[in-house]
Amino acid sequence: MAGVAAGTGEEIPGWATALLMPALNVLLALAVSALVILAIGENPVEALRVMLVGALGSGGGIGYTLYYATSLIFTGLAVAIAFHGGLFNIGAEGQAYLGGLGVALVCLSLGGWPWYLALPVTIAAAALFGAAWAAIPGYLQAYRGSHVVITTIMFNFIASALMVYLLVNVLIAPGQMSPETREFDPSLFLPTMQEMLAAIGLEIAGSPLNLSFLLALAACALVWLLVWHTRWGFALRTVGANEDAARYGGIDPKRMIVVTMLLSGALAGLLGINEIQGVQHRLILNFPAGMGFTGIAVALMGRAHPAGIIPAAILFGVLIQGGSELAFEYPTISPDLVVVIQGVVILFAGALEHMFRPAIARMFRPARGRRVEVA
Amino acid sequence: MADAALWLLSLLDSTIRLAAPLVLAALAGLYSERAGVIDIGLEGKMLAAAFAAAATAAVTGSAWLGLLAGIAASCLLAGVHGFACISQKGNQVVSGMAINTIALGLTAVLASAWFAMGGRTPSLEGAARFGEVTLPLAGTLSGVPVLGPIYADLISGHTLLVYVAVAMVPLTAWVVYRTRFGLRLRAVGENPAAVDTAGISVPALRYRAVLVTGVLCGIAGAYLSTAQGAAFQENMTAGKGFLALAALILGKWRPWPTLAACLLFAAADALQTRLQGVPVPGIGEVPVQLIEALPYIVTVVLLAGFVGRAVPPRALGLPYVKDR
């Protein structure tokens, strides 16, 4: 899995890898979407304007954008931390789904608690359930050699079937047709950003943006500390870079793989805080809505670093929010255009990341006076 | 008794219909993965083909042109996968994921833009669809006890593409194990350096394998929208590509066992719709979701190596670097 993790620079200064490559990816993704919009017969420049205005032109738009970004920060971090251990976790979607189950079970049983007392419990439940769903693929990868990519794909499907079963047969609110739980006690609802800012005298437009956004930022800081400033983080990156070297250095790669997958699943599970306790206030079907997969694009574009994941998550938040505004104004353009952009980003930032490297490296060589022509 | 026989016959009949796209997609994956290129993008290629086939058939009125368009769309994506994995030595799993995502988004965007039916394509009729083929003497022989109904209802009366899927299994077994191409295909998936040393181009071989994958996924996708169904719908593959991948793993990357795995998954699928709300004697009501999840659970158990062991081609997922 080498090459997925950031920082295998050949002749390219670090800042260029961190800034130029993602910028190039954004440009390419925009170019491809412009082609798609042209093929549909609309004006790409006008479409881009509508998207940007829809996502950033109003307080409500910005709120929605950051609400989507909150979920994407969680799943982006989940995928990124696995990258650092040399693992590709495609299962963030299923782990997030289970995380939401944990949140819902806690909220259903803690009726009447104030949200600030319940929050530590729901966070623990979200992380625990997400981690549990990643535990088996992690264990099987470490100790039985089964490829984590395949097992996490399978676990996404199993999660989906399990949740349908639970919601249709077990957790459904009595006397109701649609498969969802009853609404939680309103005292458990996380405060929205509007309520929080109103408390300090600031007025903003209403949106689903809630306290979870701050949690997501805190998670970024924690992941940054853990991966780059602890002994464990060093061990993680060593295993990801070279398993044999890690073993020679006294690190047990198998243990690391399991723990990394647990952490990855826990981060994905936290999406449930934003979606279930923050916005939906009950457990519903398919609430992760592909955010686990979009997290892959976010992690790749953010080069698996929190400082990159935050802007990448906001960028995709802009695309999702702007895309739905675009679909509203142009009935011919489906909001699925965002999925295309996501795919193009995964292709260029992930699978084809080496394609532009030589060109960029050439750009920098004369400037730095290097003449290394070793074949 | 006659009721039970009819029930069984209809169950087996749907099993065949449901197995056909799985068989085509799983065999598609077999060529790519036997050559050492992981393909989790079967799903996306099928989806793209399903859309291209349905859209072309709707516009031209010809199922055959639809099939060609489906194969072309699938091969285009296969080419992208090949370029990323073989020429650029990129991460094969990431590339497959990218292809799935692009196909999912692009088919939905183009379908709703071109046909303005909320992500569907117009319903196909007549020559725009692959009709059911009645094999010779099916009507005459249907009176014969036991074998008659089996021939007339089970074997006869499928679309042409089902017979293509059936024929692909022995053909693939023959190609992979009995031809020069097959020998080299297997070699390049196990030990590409040896193939290179023998003076055979590793990239050329892998590109060919990946294109065969494209063709077969194209047929599988066209089957979904122009033979089994009569239109394209958003995300109509609904995980069939991953199910095919699971069947390929369960079949240990060999054609006949892969066919068996596909039939098993298809039978579970056919059974699931028939067991909805019906109590099974001695067990009670089986949750349909359990049957739905069964193929994935079985695959994980097999991959874990607790029951049997699935050993992938040795060079699977590794880009070939000629010299260091």
How would you characterize the overall build of this protein?
The complex is a heterodimer of chains A (375) and B (324). By secondary structure, chain A is mainly alpha-helical. Chain A has helices at 14-40, 44-56, 59-84, 92-109, 115-144, 148-170, 193-199, 212-229, 231-241, 243-248, 253-269, 271-280, 291-301, 306-329, 337-351, 357-367. Chain A has a domain at 67-313: ABC transporter involved in vitamin B12 uptake, BtuC (Orthogonal Bundle). Chain A is built from 16 helices and no strands. Chain B has one domain: ABC transporter involved in vitamin B12 uptake, BtuC (Orthogonal Bundle), CATH 1.10.3470. In chain B, the strands form two sheets. In chain B, strands 1-2 form a two-stranded antiparallel ribbon. Chain B has a two-stranded antiparallel sheet with strand order 3-4. In chain B, α3 (63-87) runs antiparallel to α10. Chains A and B meet through α1, α5, α6, α13 and α15 of A and α3, α4, α11 and α13 of B.
Query: Alpha-carbon distance between the termini of chain A?
Result: 25 Å
User: Which stretches of chain A of 5+ consecutive residues score pLDDT under 50?
Assistant: 1-9, 369-375
Mean pLDDT of chain A: 89
Average pLDDT confidence of chain B is 90
Assigned CATH architecture of the domain at 67-313 in chain A: Orthogonal Bundle
Q: Give the structural class of chain B.
A: mainly alpha
* % residues in beta strands of chain B: under 5%
Q: Spell out the helices and strands of chain B N to C.
A: HHHHEHHEHHHHHHEEH
